[in-house]
Design a protein that fits this description.
- By secondary structure, the chain is an all-alpha fold.
- It is built from 6 helices and no strands.
- Helix 3 packs across helix 4 and helix 4 packs across helix 5.
- The C terminus is likely disordered.
């Protein structure tokens, strides 16, 4: 997984705050939902190393699943795989810009 993408996700999701917690329940630097953290072997989502490793595994899984379609990868990471499936071809319209934070990933 490209390191620029990982940095962009961290900047966008948590602003590099390893103790970040969203209203939806996402945790840590890469804002992993508890079920996603468990799915990718993260025991302590507030441990930066574990959180990043889990987030990178999830990004790799998404890249494989969406055959490298970065728009869908980023959308699924942010909104969930189910939301991308429901959005279908409209996903491009609904993807938040990962470069808006000033951290380019491409």
């Amino acid at each position: 997984v490209d390191t620029h993408l990982v940095r962009a996700v961290i900047q966008t999701e948590s602003a590099f705050n390893y103790r970040a917690r969203s209203r939806a329940g996402a945790l840590g630097l890469m804002q992993l939902m508890p079920s996603t953290a468990e799915r990718f072997g993260v025991i302590d989502p507030f441990d930066p190393r574990q959180n990043i490793q889990g987030g990178v595994k999830y990004l790799r899984w998404l890249q494989d699943y969406y055959k490298g379609d970065l728009t869908r990868v980023v959308a699924a990471y942010n909104a969930g795989e189910g939301a991308v499936m429901q959005a279908g071809s409209m996903v491009e319209v609904n993807v938040p810009s990962m470069t808006a934070s000033g951290v380019p990933f491409a």
